[in-house]
Structures are given as C-alpha cells and as structure tokens.
Amino acid sequence: MSTNQNDELAQERLIDLAAEFYDQFAQGDIPHMDIPTRTKSNIVFDEESKVWVYGDRKSTRSANSVRGARKLLKAAYAIEFLVNQLEENRSSTLRELYYLSESWDNEEAQFNDQSESNQLIEDLEIVSHVTREDFHMRPEESGAKVMGPLHIREQTRRGDRDIHCQEDVGQGGYQIPNNPDTIEFLGNDAEFVLCVETGGMRDRLVENGFDTEHDALVVHLGGQPARATRRLTKRLHDELGLPVVVFTDGDPWSYRIYGSVAYGSIKSAHLSEYLATPEAKFIGIQPQDIVDYDLPTDPLSDSDVNALESELEDPRFMTDYWEEQIQLQLDINKKAEQQSLAARGLDFVTDTYLPERLDEMGVL
Fold it and tell me: Domain check: are 177 and 263 in the same one?
C-alpha cells in the first residue's frame, strides 16, 4: 500500500471512530470505547502467526463516569488533531502531542502527563487497526542504526535517495527512520541479521569488520528496541529471507529485549504481527556461556531474581531451552554483560564466540 493510501485509510478509520461516538449519542447509548485489557494474563499465543497477541478480555472507556467521560473527550480532541495533521501532511512527536494539548480550548481535554497521551495513541491504534506511524506520530529519536551489505532506497521529503548501508555510511551506520515501510530494498548481499543490544558491542563488531567478514547486517537495538527497529528487522526476515539472531547481555532484562524482538511486548501486543519476528533466535550471552567461558560476572540482585522467576511464568519463555537457561542462572546466581567477553581479548567475540555460536545454530 502506498504512503498516500495509508494516510487515507488512517483518516478514514479515525473519522469512523469519532462517528461511533455520535451514533451512540443518537441511539441514546452512553458513549464508550472497548479496548483489549493490556495485561500479561490477557496475552494468548496465536498459532497461525506464531506471536503473542491480546486475548478476548476488554476494558471499557465509558462516559458513565466523570473519569471515563474525560478520557473520551481527550480521545475526540486527539482524533481531530490527527485527522488535521494527516490532511496537512504534517507529522509530530509523541512529546509534542502532550504539549500541543495545552492549546486545546477545553481544559478538560488537556493531558496531565505524557504517559496519558502516549496511552491514548496506543488505544487509538488498537481500536482503529492503524499504526501510529500512519497517524504521522513519531517517537523521540531512537538512534538505532544498521551496518552491512544492504542497498536501499529511502523516501524523504526531499525526494528518494539510494544508500548502501556499508559503502555510503560512516562508522555509525545507517540510521533507521521512524517508519521503515518507506524503505525499498534494492539489493542485498547479507547472510543474516545480528541484532545487538549495546552500542559498545555494536562498535566492537564494526571495528573488527564482523559485518564485512561474515556478510552480516548488524542492527543496533539501543537497549529495549524501538518499534522502527523491530519493524525493519521483521521486514529483513520476511522479505529478504534473512535469519535473525539477537545478541544481548546475560540478564533477565536483556532476555526481555530478545522477547520483544521475537514475540512482541505486552504493551504492543496489538502490533505483534507487524513488529515481531518469531523465528528470531537468541545467541547470547547465555547463562551456559557464563559457566563455559568463566566470564566476569556480577551477582544477581533481588530484582533480577524476581524478574527471572517471572520469566519462568511468561508465555514467551515457556520453552525447554529458556527454562533450562533461567534455572541455571538462578542456580549460579550470576549475570554477565556482552563486554565481559573482552576478558578473553578484544577479538574473542568476533573470532571465536560469535562464529562458534552461529555455526551451532546453523546460521553460518
């Protein structure tokens, strides 16, 4: 679907939402909006798409209370703003939307904080089945970048530009745009995608020439990955047939980074089929690596232990592999960072660790 068609669909769906409120008034019903309950207990595994999505449980935003009426009023104002933004072919950030509301003529429609406006945009995505990118809403800069043998064409306001993500970029790589669906793949010599949690490890791989030697597309996740990063990763897998592996620190919070790439997050389960890559594999740091390589470690904190125990109950981690690794980590009571591999030398990660793990996984 073209960008213009996406814009038109987004406008149409938003106007339909506003029209529903009027229809409810006309029928003598109390205006309301039903939204899937965003909790772990309402996440179900979709066998067809192989990702975790919201179940049948709903929460209702209803005008039968002052609090509910305020939420619907804010939704109506936000819908009007988004429709006008699309008509004018403008865009704004989530942060700007929060501040923009202060200029709205009804004080009751203004947001109390940014988390409230962020949640409303997510609500509108869920009920309209349109992504915020198609509302022309941008997050703040994620800084995520790609380095590797990929030739693309990017749509910009100044026209299209062709970029090779190795030859036409500096050491920093190609910065992923807010909406990766504006990227056209022109050519690809990559063998796989390596998603890397930390900037320090990403820089080590590029400095050591890992992307060149192994024809790898190195994607910097920048911590918990932004939606644009996850969307591009999914497109690289689905459209170019590239295996995806995720390389993080060896702690429970980093395992959740892998989980969001592979299966989606609770917060964005309505977009799992758009963002998640269920075929993505976890390459490390594994708890088993901490033992096998005798890596420098830190002890698990109480919050680490609680997080690991929670992951044993998380449907995204209910596999023999994860149960074995998490139990091992609880037993050894240790965690390790990606950079701990440097204890074996600066080249160990690119010369030994990653090639051996990739070979074991059948990627190399």
Answer: yes
Of 94, 119, 138, the last residue of a domain is 138
Beta strands in 148-270 (DSSP E): 150-156, 159-164, 174-175, 183-188, 192-196, 216-220, 244-247
Give phi and psi for 230, each to the nearest 5. Answer: -70, -35
What's the average model confidence in pLDDT over 282-309? Answer: 90
Look up residue 247 and give its amino acid. F
pLDDT value for 143: 61
Q: Are residues 181 and 92 in the same domain?
A: no
Amino acid, single-letter form, for residue 64: N
| pTM metric for this prediction | 0.76
The pLDDT, as a whole number, for residue 163 is 87
Residue 203's φ and ψ, nearest 5 degrees, are -65, -40
Q: What is the pLDDT of residues 94-110, one digit of tens each?
A: 788 887 788 787 888 88
Q: How far apart are CA 260 and CA 276, in angstroms?
A: 7
pLDDT at 1: 46
Does 203 appear as a known binding residue?
Answer: no
Q: What's the whole-number mean pLDDT along residues 343-348?
A: 82
Give catalytic residues, as residue numbers. Answer: 99
Q: Side chain identity at 180, as an amino acid letter?
A: P
- The mean pLDDT of 331-346, rounded to a whole number, is 87
Q: Which domain holds residue 272?
A: 145-360
Is 197 annotated among the ligand-binding residues? Answer: yes
Taking the C-alpha atoms of residue 96 and residue 117, their distance in angstroms, rounded to an integer, is 10
Tokens representing residue 219 in the block: 């994607």
The answer to whether 154 and 177 are in contact (CB under 8 A) is yes
